[in-house]
UniProtKB/TrEMBL annotation:
Family: Belongs to the DapA family.
Principal EC category: lyase
Protein name: N-acetylneuraminate lyase
Keyword set includes Lyase: yes
Residues the record lists as binding pyruvate: T49, V212
Lineage: Bacteria, Pseudomonadati, Verrucomicrobiota, Verrucomicrobiia, Verrucomicrobiales
Keywords: Carbohydrate metabolism, Cytoplasm, Lyase
EC number(s) per entry: 4.1.3.3
GO cellular component annotations of the record: cytoplasm
One term of GO molecular function: N-acetylneuraminate lyase activity
Catalytic residue list: Y140, K170
Length: 306
């Protein structure tokens, strides 16, 4: 189990590409610096936001190597997402993450040929944890993407017995009841990380102490305001800031979230390039309109920039 519970904001980082769509590892250093500057203590690399299903195994290995190289000796910790449909590839990525000195690993369940039971899911996870026996492991539960809806409390119950490095769950699941069941499972032994940025305040009210999200790449100060206001019982301020988050996410989603989120990074001076197909990207006019709207939301001030 996790010896150091993960708290605070964890940014699900973008994978940077050149304009032609090839991997741009030179951008990682600036990404890491930006996270540290805006108050983020951990990066979750190669996940959904990192377009992992659009990366080759070699690209994912190169990405992990670069992140660990850039963050060596800094306060920024790295969680490597290793999930894929091929469990052999997953094991390779997990073993590499351990060799590189990552803080933890996480994985989606295989989602083409799906595990149909909790026991089958645990079998899959056992292959992952065996490959990296020294790293805390987080299951990444996101039913809207994987199409897998299994009992996470039951997963923890079976995981206690069969997965010695199980540390918790990245919980990107709208089921608030299940979230609480997981949060207090085994006397609160697991880190259950809230995975819905636009509802962070709801997660805090349910007991969340750590959260993983894509908008923490470019709007971390907004969410730090929510965390502080909640801690101070200033719920009016917390709700106001959460509403800004909702407006931000809705604005990005209106033109294609992934491409728009990467455009925001460029606007803030951390160019991570375009999104890969099948995601779409913004044209120049759309980027200009987005920048104007971000400015109106107060999201282009110096606290949001490197």
């Amino acid at each position: 189990m996790l010896s150091h519970p993960i708290t605070g904001l964890v940014a699900a980082t973008h994978t940077p590409f050149h304009a032609d769509g090839s991997l741009n590892l030179s951008a990682v250093e600036k990404q890491a610096a930006h996270l540290l500057h805006t108050g983020v203590g951990r990066a979750f690399i190669g996940g959904t936001t990192g377009e992992s299903h659009s990366l080759s195994l070699a690209e994912r290995q190169a990405l992990a190597e670069r992140w660990m190289e850039v963050t060596k000796g800094t306060a920024l910790k790295v969680v490597v997402h290793v999930g894929a449909n091929c469990l052999g590839d997953v094991a390779t990525l997990a073993a590499q993450a351990q060799d590189l000195g990552a803080d933890a690993i996480s994985a989606l369940a295989p989602s083409y040929f799906k595990p149909r039971s909790v026991s089958s899911l645990v079998d899959c996870c056992a292959q992952i944890t065996t490959a990296a026996p020294e790293l805390p492991f987080f299951l990444y539960d996101i039913p809207s993407f994987t199409g897998i809806s299994l009992s996470m409390p039951e997963f923890l119950s079976q995981g206690v017995e069969r997965l010695p490095t199980l540390a918790g769950i990245k919980f990107t699941n709208p089921d608030g009841m299940m979230f609480q069941q997981c949060l207090y499972h085994t006397e609160g032994a697991f880190s259950i990380l809230w995975g819905t940025d636009e509802c962070l305040l709801a997660g805090l009210a349910l007991g969340a102490t750590g959260a993983v999200g894509s908008t923490y790449n470019f709007a971390a100060p907004l969410y730090l305001h929510i965390l502080r206001a909640f801690a101070e019982n200033d719920f009016e301020s917390a709700r106001r800031e959460q509403r800004r988050s909702v407006e931000l996410v809705a604005r990005l989603a209106s033109v294609g979230y992934m491409g728009a989120a990467k455009a925001v990074m460029k606007i803030l001076g951390v160019d991570v390039g375009p999104a890969r197909l099948p995601h779409t990207n913004l044209d120049a006019a759309q980027e200009k309109a987005l920048a104007a709207d971000l400015d109106a939301m107060g999201l282009l001030s110096t606290e949001f920039r490197l």
